[in-house]
Specification:
Layout lengths: L1 E6 L3 H4 L1 H6 L3 H10 L5 E6 L9 H4 L4 E5 L9 H12 L3 E5 L6 H7 L6 E12 L13 E11 L9 E8 L4 E10 L2 E6 L12 H14 L18
Parallel strand pairs: 1-2, 1-3, 3-4, 4-9
Antiparallel strand pairs: 5-6, 5-7, 7-8, 8-9
Helix pairs in contact: 5-6
């Protein structure tokens, strides 16, 4: 399984606490969590040529994981179209935290993907679909003592499945883990992961990311996006 972790890599250059929390940057830290004998992990950022999302790279990627926050508009539209094409043809996509406002996630949903937000809250996440593959080995509930609050209404297309729900100490609730299918590609959005907090150190969060990669991995990828005339078989 080949996984590409994309991170805009902006906060890492401007905020020392980000690399203190996540040595090697958020992308590098998550790569270290996912790498195994069965998973080959690469990373890419805005700094790379074509944002590191060339045809050559994407055609050799089973699952793309996307973290973004301050640089959504810096990703060229033609790159977004390219990523979208590969999702439709089978590549999995995992969208993390503030990447809810990324161009690719908005394109997939066809909505604003707006939400309520507030810095520094305590979150309790509940596993509401415990028999789902992404929830395998995840506790029924777990707490993140410091996380950015994301609250409903969350302007997204109706999810295929809502696997996790978040509750915050200000009273807000949020659909923290949701899935969709677009074309032949599986998509999972997962809410925790603010750059100045440490959600990715949590064992349940790590398990969810590992499970999500396995779930989103296609049986077959690079399926041609065609609309052929079909002769009758009988």
């Amino acid at each position: 399984m080949k996984v590409l972790i994309w991170n805009e890599n902006i906060h890492e250059k401007e905020m020392p606490e980000v690399t203190q929390n996540y040595p090697g940057g958020i992308h590098g830290y998550i790569a270290s969590l996912l790498a195994s004998d069965d998973v080959e992990v690469r990373t890419a950022t805005l700094d790379d040529e074509e944002c590191g999302l060339t045809d050559e790279v994407l055609s050799d990627t089973d699952v793309l994981m996307w973290w973004g926050h301050a640089g959504h508009d810096l990703v060229p539209d033609d790159i977004v179209e390219r990523v979208h094409k590969y999702i439709l043809s089978g590549m999995g996509l995992i969208v993390l935290h503030s990447a809810h406002h990324s161009k690719i996630f908005r394109k997939i949903n066809g909505t604003t993907c707006n939400l309520k937000w507030r810095d520094t809250a305590r979150e309790r996440i509940w596993t509401i679909k415990p028999n789902h593959p992404i929830a395998e080995g995840v506790d029924e509930t777990f707490a993140l003592d410091c996380e950015e609050m994301y609250g409903e209404p969350f302007d997204i297309a109706e999810p295929m499945e809502t696997i996790f729900m978040g509750w915050f100490d200000g009273g807000e609730v949020f659909r923290s883990g949701c899935t969709w299918i677009r074309g032949n590609g599986k998509i999972f959005y997962f809410q925790p992961g603010h750059e100045t907090n440490t959600a990715y150190h949590n064992e349940n969060v790590q398990r969810i990311l590992k499970n999500a990669v396995k779930w989103a991995c296609p049986i077959k990828k690079n399926i041609p996006l065609e609309c052929p005339f079909a002769e009758p078989l009988e």
